[in-house]
Sequence to fold (170 residues):
Amino acid sequence: MAQERQASLKGNPITLVGPQLQAGDKAPDFTLNKSLVDTVSLNDYAGKIKLISVVPSIDTGVCDAQTRRFNEEAAKLGESVAVLTVSADLPFAQARWCGAAGIDQVTLLSDYKGNEFGQAYGVYIKELALDMRAIFVLDANNTITYVEVLGEMTEHPNYEAAVEAVRALL
Fold:
């Protein structure tokens, strides 16, 4: 049986499914969609530091702000860092949003097909079939060095701590 723990959405309980990953854990592999047919896995970012920003839906205010902030930070971090935003939005919605928002430094990836990423990373929300807001920083060897899974979906992550975790690996 999958591990479950509680979080909240506007104070109402929601259930996160999957392991509670921690710094020092090996990052689970994933397959996510870049488009309806094109997929990527963790191996596609081999040798790079990865900042994985997980958002429930790109079309909400906090998710929009989170992705814009990491787009700005990505430009300063350099080529050795891959900044990925993962959501359960369809790839069409992600592409539309990126075009409208002028996002060009962050790669948006979709977990809409079965939420395998969310379940592997312990951020799948059982009641909503979305992924909980979270940040994972992985070193070039895919060891997790920083994790923040928010307890309340509507709150912002600690952007500064996440960026500092990446800078510590440069």
Summary: Helices lie at 61-77, 91-101, 116-120, 159-167.
